[in-house]
Design goal:
5 helices, 105 residues, alpha+beta, 46% helix
């Protein structure tokens, strides 16, 4: 399993199938966390040029419109977030590319 897909797999779960004991969080709390992470993603995208200057080539965890962890190692960022006691569903973790990427669709 690709370790970077975790949150996206969970997002596809329907409320009826939600297992609060398994995930340790209510579905409503999970939805609020995802909404918060989406707002943080927008902040990240809007600030990407300045973020790139400091964090190019690293994974960053964004929470509350600020970077709370960074590392070249994805697992280290996840561990840092867990140590802070923040649910992964509330965090936006992104890789900061050294250069701008252009997508042609």
């Amino acid at each position: 399993m690709n370790k970077h897909r975790g949150r996206h797999e969970v997002l596809r779960m329907e409320c009826a199938n939600w297992d609060e004991k398994k995930w340790g969080i209510t579905y409503e709390e999970f939805k609020r966390n995802v909404e918060r992470a989406n707002k943080d993603r927008l902040w990240f995208l809007n600030k990407l040029d300045s973020i790139r200057e400091k964090y190019a080539g690293k994974w960053v965890a964004v929470y509350g419109n600020r970077i709370i962890s960074s590392s070249e190692d994805y697992d280290q960022v996840v561990n840092d977030v867990r140590k802070k006691g923040i649910k992964l569903s509330a965090i936006d973790i992104q890789f900061v590319t050294p250069e701008k990427l252009w997508w042609i669709l």
